[in-house]
Amino acid sequence: MTRPSDNPPQLVGWLKSLGMTKYEALVYIALLKVTSATASEIHELSGVPRASVYPVLDQLRDKDLVSVSQSAPKRFAAIPPADAIDKLTARIGKNAQQALESLTLIHRERIAAEEGSGELIWNIYGIAGIRKRLAELITHATTDIRIIAHSRVFSEEIKDLLKQCADQVSVEIITPSWEGPVPATMNLYLKKPSVLPKELEGCGDMLAGGVCIIDNKKVMVIVGSAEEDAVALFSESEGFVRFFMRYYGLIVDWVRKA
Amino acid sequence: MTRPSDNPPQLVGWLKSLGMTKYEALVYIALLKVTSATASEIHELSGVPRASVYPVLDQLRDKDLVSVSQSAPKRFAAIPPADAIDKLTARIGKNAQQALESLTLIHRERIAAEEGSGELIWNIYGIAGIRKRLAELITHATTDIRIIAHSRVFSEEIKDLLKQCADQVSVEIITPSWEGPVPATMNLYLKKPSVLPKELEGCGDMLAGGVCIIDNKKVMVIVGSAEEDAVALFSESEGFVRFFMRYYGLIVDWVRKA
DNA sequence: TAAATGTTGTTATAGCAACAACAACAGGTG
DNA sequence: CACCTGTTGTTGTTGCTATAACAACATTTA
Predict the structure, then answer these.
(1) Which of A35, B15, B37, B197 could share a disulfide with B41, CB 3.0–4.6 Å?
(2) pLDDT (tens digit, 9 = 90+) per residue, B167-214?
(3) Measured between CB atoms, does A58 come within 8 Å of chain B?
């Protein structure tokens, strides 16, 4: 009739992350394939050991995911998937909300007792994390954004964000190449790193990664160039920011002259 | 400084249902209490064994819930709770959506191959489950709702639902007592079960539970009267429905005469 | 009727994987 | 050396997974 193995292999995993056990998932899936079934039928349909079917059905009934008939032998039926997922996510969502309340309470308590922002330098691993953080930075920028970076850094999402905020904040970008439209309000300089002059030697390698300065307050430096092991540093530390603003100044001066 | 035990005892449980382990939760909570911390500080702050702190921090970093400083020794900081909960729920929500798609696919395949609705009688255990199912039934009613039931069954939620749909569908209710306002469009009969006439003897006990008929198609019978072990039967089976519509008719005839 | 057979639902228990907790050790620093 | 960091490996515990065995009951067969 219905082959038990023609469902996505990850499906059980998905359901597990929603709070079900492997057996609960298998039994529920099996019950969806029929109008109703006895424990033994469920055992055959799901592959779950017959003896394990009973406690699992109890658990599913506790979660209101199956209903039980009055007949003997008992017959079981699954509630529609939409309802089931709703019930599961509702429970998790409730937990999430309560957790959020408690956590923000703890967090606020600390934030209140805090004077200046940290003097630390943070790591961001991987190009994905870098892009994500960069997106956050761009979103929260208030006065100006200045970026020197390899084109690889500019994902579609980041280009979109830059376009959106180019009206409100000053945007200046130096990169080897740029695909797609460029807003008029955005200052874009295209420069190959290979044509850097002698006096800036050593800085060239860095163009493979990049520097991003936000509001003259926050700096993100991309130091790993290869796609696989890209690493970025981020800091709001005064000295750190001052150094890279100086570095940025060097580059941008030369770019403007050329 | 901050006592580690002044957070809700269920908080760890909530976070666990969001896919974190106990240690991950403890470490994250601890990190919220400070700007940043070394592994040893986290160990003291969270109570997690020092050696376990390192792998746990790795996991948290994989989930983008903490950032790592470049300094030696490394320092760790938590991302804001709102962001963290967002990330966790987003991942689960994605799984939920994918699971839903797969499950509905399986379900539809079965529904399509199915002729009539089931001829089975289903159990609902406990007053809470009964009320929930009753609420669903009322919500999906299209033409009429008829209920004989003890007042205990009518929770505030159910009264609200009845009020809301009293305009679109015919609503008729027989119950010993009713608190709160009664919509004009709703037919409400107040009858004590004790004054039932001789010819309906034996039906009296049932008033302690109740009968609910929806659209002349679905019937729910509440057979256990006590709060603790209330049990309801539900069926769309033709014979079952016919029997209880007849039973309902007996009662309602007598009620109208009185 | 009595014995044999099969099914349902329950209980006990062994196996297993992930997590939790601890001990030990190399490297670095004052 | 004494101390701290970061890593590794071992052990204990827990909860899910899996199998076996059993009592209760109905059905079949001699």
Answers:
(1) B37
(2) 999 999 998 888 888 888 999 988 776 555 555 555 545 445 689 999
(3) no
Residue numbers of the domain that contains B153: 121-257
A:217-236 residues touching chain B, CB 8 A cutoff: 233-234
Length of chain A: 258
Both B154 and B242 in a single domain?
A: yes
CATH number for A57: 1.10.10.10
In the 134-163 stretch of chain A, whose C-beta falls under 7 Å of nucleic acid strand C?
A: none
CATH assignment of the domain containing A135: 3.30.870.10
Give the nucleotide with minimal C1' distance to the Cα of A40.
C8
CA distances to A213, A230, A240, B187 from A127, rounded to whole Å, are 18, 6, 22, 67
Q: 3-class SS at A191? A: coil
Q: Tokens for A32, please give them.
A: 């969806």
DSSP H or E stretch at residue B231: strand B231-235
**Total domain count, chain A:** 2
For an interface test with A, give the residue of B94, B100, B136, B221 to mutate (most A CBs within 10 A).
B100
Contact flag A123-B8 (C-beta cutoff 8 Å): no
Q: Quick check: A18 and A96 in contact, CB under 8 A?
A: no
